[in-house]
Design a protein that fits this description.
This protein is an alpha/beta fold. It has one domain: Alpha-Beta Barrel (TIM Barrel). The chain is about 45% helix and about 20% strand. Strands 1-2-3-4-5-6-7-9 form an 8-stranded parallel beta barrel, surrounded by 7 helices. Helix 1 links the parallel strand 1 and strand 2.
């Protein structure tokens, strides 16, 4: 199983430059790839270019980027531009994001997100491999000048429609904050969808929160990333089955994140994360591998561990 690093994941209150520090640690420790997620704070391609300038060798993946906000040519151009200025392979990850981000931040309608994801993935399957001299998009009078960015096309998926898109177009499918049991079930759905599409299945990766020997600040940071999933279908049932039904019920009442954080036992973090001493974490990684995960993308807690140095050093390849 491959181990990569997520330098920028979901929005939190960590220092603005923390993704750069995480990426530098990952590069120094020999991790093969760094993910640069996009949200209200960071532009994924600008961050990827900055990481490329501040590291020596690590490959870069920008995203997931929201397909309702960025058009396929803009995504392909961004990846090729970063590859040109860094000399690194650059992949892109696609996702549908949320109404809160697409409409609340960008002011764009989040309509038919699964169809938009499919259209973007289908277009990028070709655009990411176009050669210099070809039209930048089919039918355009503008010639492509960049070389292909050279990285994989990843589709973030959880529901059946998104899994179908990943199976048909992606090199890799991405899950976020999942248990080994969910990995097993989602991999089965991916294999079935790839079989229907007549394709070799894409590899399966997951962003997984990680904190080796966590201090209280790191554990709180991980817990904050978990509480947002308590009302999401597929996740709420998992937390209920794991014994956290009271917190799920509270989340359904519309309780805020701080209230949920106080109500959710710390053990919940280990349901969907790599939390504990090194032996515990390595055993949990083995469980993910046995469930069918091809790649763990570590999302290191940094609140009590600047740059994720303790966790990334302990789990370095």
């Amino acid at each position: 199983m491959d181990i990569t690093v997520v330098a920028a994941a979901r929005e939190d209150v960590s220092p603005l430059g923390e993704p750069l520090r995480v990426a530098q640690q990952a590069d120094r420790l020999g991790y093969p790839e760094v993910w640069l997620g996009e949200g209200p704070t960071w532009d994924a391609f600008v961050l990827a270019a900055a990481v490329g300038a501040g590291t020596r060798r690590v490959a870069l993946t920008a995203g997931p980027v929201a397909v309702s906000v960025r058009d396929p040519h803009g995504i392909a151009r961004g990846a090729a531009s970063v590859a040109a200025v860094t000399g690194r392979p650059v992949g892109v990850a696609l996702g549908t994001s949320s109404k809160r981000v697409v409409e609340g931040v960008h002011g764009r309608p989040r309509e038919r997100p699964a169809a938009t994801l499919e259209a973007s993935a289908a277009a990028l399957r070709d655009l990411l491999h176009g050669a210099p001299g070809e039209p930048v998009v089919p039918g355009s009078a503008f010639p492509r000048r960049h070389r292909p960015p050279g990285g994989p096309l990843t589709v973030a998926a959880f529901g059946d429609r998104a899994i179908s898109v990943a199976a048909r177009y992606a090199d890799r499918m991405l899950l976020d904050v999942v248990s080994p049991e969910q990995v097993r079930a989602l991999r089965a759905r991916l294999l079935a969808a790839a079989g229907e599409a007549g394709r070799t299945p894409p590899t399966l990766a997951a962003w997984v929160p990680a904190a080796v020997d966590p201090d209280p600040a790191s554990l709180t940071q991980v817990m904050r990333s978990v509480v947002g999933y308590l009302t999401v279908p597929g996740y709420r049932e998992m937390f209920e089955e794991a014994g956290f039904g009271a917190a799920v019920a509270l989340a359904r009442t519309g309780a805020d994140a701080d209230t949920l954080l106080r109500a959710l036992p710390e053990e919940a973090a280990a349901t969907v994360g790599l939390i504990g001493d090194l032996d515990t974490v390595r055993a949990r990684m083995d469980a993910y591998a046995q469930a069918g995960l091809d790649e763990i993308a570590l999302v290191p807690a940094t609140a009590g561990d600047p740059g994720g140095e303790r966790t990334l050093s302990a789990l370095a390849p």
